[in-house]
């Protein structure tokens, strides 16, 4: 327990933790601010009057066009006359085609966006959690990588020779920090978005169905971020350097995933999407994912469907993470620390 | 009392790509008795650090047994580690933490009280610098921090790998006093590996000399020096002209004796005792102006034993030096036995 507390403190006292913490909080505020500025419940009196004026002008022009047979003779409409269909049309059709048939209303000239909390907040929250998860993965791998590269690990092992305990405690501390940070960020983001919706948008109906769905999705996302933390820490443990862990993760997400995808396509494998890690991550978060087989030979048969449930995705992702964690454990147990 | 540290037949082999495997430790033995300052001496690459790392469970070994406080290590290390304070070669710390925080985290992790941190900072003279981050520490300050860390849990066994490394003269002096105080009035057993032979001579009660991963000799520092110093006499005369006469007089009187003229003095080896020399010379009508007994210091014993004594025009290569010693010690094993007997006497 003492060791756990000191490891928690070790993570929290790092400068990188402070920097990342500030960046994440500022990021959440920035997202909320963007929504706050772009959302509005309705146009102001001025905007409405201006839009109405614009609509009136357009409608007037249409009326003018219908009334005046020579409307299109002026040089500015030359381009309309060159249209092959122009000759055969009645004046009204011409006006309809080249000016617009509508009875324009003010709405046609107003672009208002209303942030509806019940409909949009979940996606934003999941996005925030995933970005936070990536940041925390970096943080946890740095906590372990820096300990190796600074030589602090051998000091610690001289005090605590039970390596399994040290590794378990370090991993536990990283997970606790990660879980707590993501939950705190989600709470902050939830509060801010709710505030934005209440003041400059709509809240919508937050019934028990919404809550059930939201909690399930967010819960799975939080589990995913903790898994990412474990992965980051394991890779740092294996590579004994932060940069190695960061490089492997970034390298796979950017290049590796693409290469695997290309290989899958080259092999004409059905459902090439299932080779992408992103597919499985999406399936895990959304709870269900359907892949369609476009490579299907026969034209009239419906494309085959492959369904990935959250359980499938959880097993696969969990397996990958567990695999790396076990590998790290094994390597740490046997390794000469110098 | 049983020894605090007992190591026997320790082996560690590093396999190297495309080359012969390298035996860093080749059946090393080490015994350290309680309440002593024990010096662990050997040339570069002889396996001192490797031994200490193995003892602390940082590296795996390929053979041999180790016991600390009578407990098998590394297997039972968790049970005894709270009584061991250690510094391994050139200690490194997380650079952005202050010295104090570094110690506090360790203290907290093992349930050592916070006030102890201040005590050890005081003991190693780091109080002033405790707030600064380790990044800005000099080599000597890092070394002090490392020693502070080793002292933190009030260990009964203190293992220090080259503690004098990077310390200034005042620091070395202070360290020596501290270690001797710990050993002699606090009953702490101290193991110190060092390159500074004079340092070991001044600091340690007993010592073990290793070379190429093997023990060459161990015992009390004084015994080892005495056992290997074929004490010679340096004799001077008022008149250099009497030198050849004196050589004649002495070699004529005793058969096993050698007398060599060296830089205006006579170096006599194998004489029964100084009084005999004075008498023999006086009988021959030669009067001396100075007679001194010359004992070898640890340095020459060390160089002899480890075979790293310089040969003119050749640099001693690490690990290649040893073809264990000439006449002074009749082969490594023999010396080992001889000195162990010496200790029992
Ligand atoms: N990680 C390693 N890989 C390969 N060889 C190693 C490793 N660590 C040590 N050695 C070898 O083991 C031998 C003993 O090294 P060690 O560090 O124990 O020497 P030492 O007695 O502490 O030397 P010094 O007095 O210079 O500190 C050396 O020959 C070294 O080359
Ligand atoms: Mg060394």
From TrEMBL, chain A:
Keyword Membrane (UniProt): yes
Any Gene Ontology CC annotation: plasma membrane
Keyword Transcription part of the UniProt annotation: no
Pfam family, one: ABC2_membrane_2
GO molecular function: ABC-type transporter activity
Residue spans crossing the bilayer: 16-37, 122-146, 167-197, 217-238, 245-267, 313-332
Key words, A-Z: Membrane, Transmembrane, Transmembrane helix
Protein name: ABC-2 family transporter protein
Organism the protein comes from: Glycomyces harbinensis
TrEMBL record, chain B:
Pfam name, any one: ABC_tran
Gene3D superfamilies per the UniProt record, alphabetical: P-loop containing nucleotide triphosphate hydrolases
UniProt entry tagged with the keyword Oxidoreductase: no
Family from the record: Belongs to the ABC transporter superfamily.
Name this polypeptide is given: ABC-2 type transport system ATP-binding protein
SUPFAM superfamilies membership: P-loop containing nucleoside triphosphate hydrolases
Limits of the ABC transporter domain: 5-237
GO molecular function: ATP binding; ATP hydrolysis activity
UniProt keyword list: ATP-binding, Nucleotide-binding, Transport
Keyword Transport applies: yes
Transmembrane segments: none
Taxonomic classification: Bacteria, Bacillati, Actinomycetota, Actinomycetes, Glycomycetales
Native source species: Glycomyces harbinensis
Domain of life: Bacteria
InterPro entries linked: AAA+_ATPase, ABC_transporter-like_ATP-bd, ABC_transporter-like_CS, P-loop_NTPase
